[in-house]
């Protein structure tokens, strides 16, 4: 095997790992904040939003309400419902 093909293979493997990290939401091992809706949590990498990361939410009033619900959930340790 030539040095060039080995270097290409190593580069391709490094790119695969980088892409996998992006697809999985970045640093492994960070806690997740599940949204509490199984249909949504099931399709999020790791079952929720990764803690300690920036998440963009766009839209109108519904987005504001969604963000308020996320903050309440995060402030309650992920349990939601404002501590009830």
Walk me through what this model shows.
There is one protein chain. The protein has 2 domains: 1-29; 31-84, no CATH class. It is mainly alpha-helical and 84 residues long. The longest helix has 21 residues, at 3-23. The model is unreliable at 80-84 (pLDDT under 50). 48% of the residues lie in helices and 5% in strands.
Features of the shown structure:
84 residues; 48% helix; 3 helices; mainly alpha; two-stranded antiparallel ribbon; 2 strands; 2 domains
Task: Record the SSE blueprint.
Layout: H1 3-23, E1 32-33, H2 38-41, E2 49-50, H3 61-75
Antiparallel strand pairs: 1-2
Short description:
The chain has three helices and two strands.
Instruction: Flag low-confidence runs.
Output: 80-84
The average pLDDT score comes to 82
CA radius of gyration: 18 Å
Amino-to-carboxy terminus distance: 64 Å
Number of helical regions? 3
Give the class from helix and strand content and strand pairing: mainly alpha
Shape: elongated
The number of distinct β-strands equals 2
Q: What percentage of residues falls in helices of 4 or more residues?
A: 40-55%
Strand order of the largest sheet: 1-2
Q: What percent of residues are in strands?
A: under 5%
Total domains: 2
- Main sheet, how many strands, which sense, barrel? 2 strands, antiparallel
Following the backbone from N to C, one meets helices and strands in this order, namely HEHEH
